Amino acid sequence: MTESSPTEVNEARVREYYRLVDADDVLGLVSLFAEDAVYRRPGYEPMRGHTGLTAFYTGERVIESGRHTVATVVARGDQVAVNGVFEGVLKDGRQVRLEFADFFLLNGERRFSRRDTYFFAPLV
């Protein structure tokens, strides 16, 4: 049995994130982030630390439910880039299908220290 490389471990952590967010396991997904993590997402002030992330996922997030389908994961060292599609329902009842790109930076403890999310949606 071979030991996983740090890059493989980082990719697995990112895939676990999507499983937890789709399962609405806020405690589990927040635990993947470092205490001082920063999450940047269009339309929101940067979320900082476990308190900010928990507030986002339990109240501020406009998504009611849905599923992420990851199309591509590119991992190199402590950086992981992802693109895929989110399909779900917003809190106002609208059905959405959005392509997204996420960029994760992991620290030495294999926890997310930064995440940036981008959506492919018309803004103007």
UniProtKB/TrEMBL annotation:
Signal peptide: none annotated. SUPFAM superfamilies: NTF2-like. Residues 14-108 form the SnoaL-like domain. It holds the Pfam family SnoaL_2. InterPro entries: NTF2-like_dom_sf, SnoaL-like. This is DsaE. It comes from Streptomyces scopuliridis.
